[in-house]
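Please check both lines for our workbook:

___
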Amino acid sequence: MAYDTDFIVRLIGASELIERRGNLEDALGGLAEMAAKLLSASMCSIMLLGDEEVADGMPYEPGLRVYAHYGALPQEAYAQFTRLNEGISGHVAATAEPLLIENIARSPFMSVARHAHDRPGSLVSTPIFLNDKVIGVFNVSSPLDERVFIRRDLDLLSIFALFVGKSIHVAQLQNVLRSRLMQVALALEEKGEGRYRL
């Protein structure tokens, strides 16, 4: 690989970004930018899995929402809820399989792709895993210089997404640990042992 070292540096940078920001939501925008630059693309979105009530009194339905992006994305995209098996991201989340589309205009997903009519092009999408469960999807599109994504791009994004999933897990564990330490500190303070304050 021509840029093995650069890729490893970016992986380390991704984990440091989550740790530095301390807040996962704040870090996601930086991760979207890193993924886009990794693949020399102008657009990236990170969608995370959640539940939404379909109608009053009906059960909640799992689906995806955009939580961060890099590049041009209309603000209304953040309000959209994508059900599993709906569109490209819903398909990737439901199947837990990465997807490489060389030309969206000549793919079965043409009718459901955003911006495909204005900017037909190449796209890669891969699931983000946490403990072997899909928690979100990385979408990268609009490669620079009008090139076409290849299998290697999909493999790089999949490795990046796997590493991000592990980093998200570590961030969650750190938050739990901080919360427990805070509870212990408060309990000690209530007992008059404030010298153990954290």
